[in-house]
Fold this sequence. Notes:
The protein has helices at about 1-5, 30-40. By secondary structure, it is an all-alpha fold.
Amino acid sequence: MVDVARRCGISTRLQPVPSIALGAFEVAPVELLTCYATIGNRGVRPPVHRVAAVFDRGGDPADFIVFEGWKTLRVRRT
């Protein structure tokens, strides 16, 4: 499991213990993002870029970004 995590982009020191699959170790969000991106990209680890700033069409720094999402999961109450 540690070897797979390394190949997927996790560089945090991990111990090979059974609870690793349950999230027993903290990792940086960018490492987790890289790992998920690798899985979603069918095993090919893409370069990950951090966004330093976002500008609007006029070249001014954007105050906020509006994200219009879409529902992908159905929530079922039990």
